[in-house]
């Protein structure tokens, strides 16, 4: 029986056992270390009649190999059916082109929720308490006459969550434990059952009653002391936060972003910070990654992380495992655990 071929973009960092299981069943090929080498590899494969049925897009592979975009997909021989991408976000794959090509795209939602929520709270507390400034001063010889600026307590503050999905919910639960009031904005409110049920545990039921839905983004911006963004990047969410939105936020409020950089207009954010309208920001993602706006780097009211919200051994292992399970399941049964797109009217796999 002929084995199916899989192309791996990027290395498997931690889920080595799952990789070995996949290699025992299928032929795994590894992409070159640069975009140029990858493109040449695909051209050679096409000349040789080698078809890849699945593409595994590894964690952070876009930094060296670029996006799985239209031009790259055009280099594959006919027969590519699945693009299995590591990460909750799927903007590193051109889903529109893949769908047009009748190629399935999967991501790894859910398994990143806790680590990303922890990073969000870390950035929020660091921003409120100016931890990064204090550590910087200590490492550079803080003396008794060089007192750090005083911080703020999160207790009794209002946290506004934009996008109460898996990560947003995980952030909300952590914020409630800090004594914060939590409000959220989605395109539609999450339905709250009249009582705990088989589908809603007592704990989840209590949580849903503890968070408050607001009817518009403007209302959230005008109410929250801290705004935390948890939406996917799409044409609709690109620059969702710009000059107008920052002006609507409360004087002295804070912005936290662990979703995607282009959701925020960085130049407008810089202006809101430099004017003093915003008291601070905590960022894990940037509009032009890996580049960071130079004025954000210089601003000591901003806590910075280099897109490492899910960067833990446990979470990367779970993401890689789920991504490879999608490939194995598709090859063996034709079904998927976490599909992103859908090109069948009935919403089922062919």
Automatic annotation (TrEMBL):
Alphabetical UniProt keywords: NAD, Oxidoreductase
Residues covered by the D-isomer specific 2-hydroxyacid dehydrogenase NAD-binding domain: 122-309
CDD domains: Mand_dh_like (cd12168)
Keyword Plastid recorded: no
Superkingdom of source: Eukaryota
Domain D-isomer specific 2-hydroxyacid dehydrogenase catalytic: 67-341
Record-linked InterPro entries: D-isomer_2-hydroxyacid_DH (IPR050223), D-isomer_2_OHA_DH_cat_dom (IPR006139), D-isomer_DH_CS (IPR029753), D-isomer_DH_CS1 (IPR029752), D-isomer_DH_NAD-bd (IPR006140), NAD(P)-bd_dom_sf (IPR036291)
Molecular function via GO: glyoxylate reductase (NADPH) activity; hydroxypyruvate reductase [NAD(P)H] activity; NAD binding
A GO-annotated cellular component: cytosol
Keyword check for NAD: yes
SUPFAM superfamilies in alphabetical order: Formate/glycerate dehydrogenase catalytic domain-like (SSF52283), NAD(P)-binding Rossmann-fold domains (SSF51735)
Family as reported in the entry's similarity comment: Belongs to the D-isomer specific 2-hydroxyacid dehydrogenase family.
Full protein name: Glyoxylate reductase
């Amino acid at each position: 029986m002929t084995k199916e071929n899989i192309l791996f973009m990027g290395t498997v960092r931690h889920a080595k056992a799952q990789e070995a299981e996949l290699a025992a069943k299928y032929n795994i090929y590894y992409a070159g270390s640069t975009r140029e080498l990858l493109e040449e590899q695909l051209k050679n494969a096409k000349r040789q009649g080698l078809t890849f049925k699945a593409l595994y897009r590894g964690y952070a592979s876009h930094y060296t190999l670029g996006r799985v975009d239209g031009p790259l997909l055009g280099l594959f021989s006919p027969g590519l059916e699945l693009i299995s991408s590591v990460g909750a976000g799927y903007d590193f794959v051109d889903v529109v082109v893949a769908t047009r090509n009748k190629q399935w795209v999967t991501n790894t939602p859910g398994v990143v929720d806790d680590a990303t929520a922890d990073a969000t709270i870390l950035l929020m507390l660091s921003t409120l308490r100016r931890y990064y400034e204090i550590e910087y001063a200590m490492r550079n010889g803080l003396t008794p006459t060089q007192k750090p600026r005083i911080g703020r307590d999160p207790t009794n503050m209002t946290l506004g969550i934009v996008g109460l999905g898996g990560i947003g919910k995980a952030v909300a639960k952590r914020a409630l434990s800090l004594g914060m009031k939590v409000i959220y904005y989605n395109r539609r409110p999450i339905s709250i059952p009249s009582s705990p049920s088989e589908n809603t545990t007592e704990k989840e039921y209590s949580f849903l009653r503890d968070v408050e839905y607001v009817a518009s983004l403007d209302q959230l911006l005008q109410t929250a002391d801290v705004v935390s963004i948890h939406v996917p990047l799409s044409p609709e969410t690109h620059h969702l936060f710009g000059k107008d939105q920052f002006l609507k936020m409360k004087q002295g409020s804070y912005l936290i972003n662990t979703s995607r950089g282009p959701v925020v207009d960085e130049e407008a954010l810089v202006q809101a910070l430099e004017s003093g309208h915003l008291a601070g920001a905590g960022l894990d993602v940037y509009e032009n990654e890996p580049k960071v706006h130079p004025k954000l780097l210089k601003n000591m009211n901003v806590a910075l992380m280099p897109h490492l919200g899910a960067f833990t051994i446990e979470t990367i292992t779970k993401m890689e495992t789920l991504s490879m399970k999608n490939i194995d399941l598709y090859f063996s049964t034709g079904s998927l655990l976490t599909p992103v797109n859908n090109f069948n009217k009935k919403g089922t796999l062919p």
